[in-house]
What does this fold into?
Amino acid sequence: MAYLFPMQEKTTVIYNDTCPICSREVDSYRRMTARDGLDIAYCRLSDGAQAAHGLTRDAAARRFHVIRDGKMLDGMPAFAALWEEMPRLRWLAWLVRRPVLRQITEGLYDHAMAPMLYRMHLRRQRRQESVSGPAAPR
It folds into this structure.
C-alpha cells in the first residue's frame, strides 16, 4: 500500500531494529548500500524516528516501510522499492513484481511473515516489561 508523503531527497527505510531477524537483514542492506555509495537513510524503531514519518511505534513494528519518491510503501512493495535501488538486488525486485510471484510473495509476507515477526516483537516487549517494568506510553 502506498501513501503520499512529502517529497524527500533520499529513500528512507523504516524498520524494527529490536527484531533480530529484521535487524540482521537491514544491516546487510545498509552494508550493501554503503559499499555501493547509495544515499539511503535508515530509521530505527528504537530511536523513535518513525514518528517523524507519520508512523506509530506499533505500525512501524508490524511491517517493513520504505519512503521513496514521496510515497510510503509497506510490505513487499517496500522491499521491492529498496531492492530496485540496489544494483546487486535489482533482479530480486524484478522477480517479486512478476504477476504470479507478486501474489505469492505478498501473501506470504502479509499473512505469515509479518504477523509472525510482529508476534515475536510483542513477546520480546512483554518479557522486557516483566523484567524492567511497564514501558512509557506510545
About this structure: The chain has one domain: 2-132. The chain is about 55% helix and 15% strand. The helical segments are 20-35, 57-62, 76-85, 90-96, 99-132. Residues 2-132 form a domain with the Glutaredoxin fold (CATH 3.40.30).
